[in-house]
Amino acid sequence: MVDFTALIARMDAQRSRWVALPDGKRVQFRRPLETEFGKFRSGVGVDHLCEYVCGWEGFSEADLLGSAIGSSDPLPFSAELWARVVRDRLEYVRPVATEVVAAITEHLAEKDAIAKN
What we know:
There is one protein chain. This protein has helices spanning 4-14, 46-52, 61-65, 79-88, 90-116; strands at 16-20, 26-30, 53-57. The chain has 117 residues and is α+β, with helices and mostly antiparallel strands. A hairpin with a 5-residue loop joins strand 1 (16-20) and strand 2 (26-30). Helix 2 packs antiparallel against helix 4 (79-88). The radius of gyration is 16 Å and the shape is globular.
């Protein structure tokens, strides 16, 4: 019997990539599905980054609240928290948006190359 949950997870992993951010942090996003590409006609906005980022490394309470208040322990990823962080840290927007565009462009180029063969 096919484990569809595992199959979907593997498909999602194939669409995933990491983006380096300032201060040694990084976030993971999944390339949008082809039927979602239309959402990007006007470019990549912060709402897109909130929707497609699915993981992070290097974030702690100290990063978000200051070292005098927050713990330096790594925080598990939270989509809700990421949405708040990226909306308040402009320096995170450009690197992630650039990689989302690159992922879409590369995917389309791969499909085009396959179609030509």
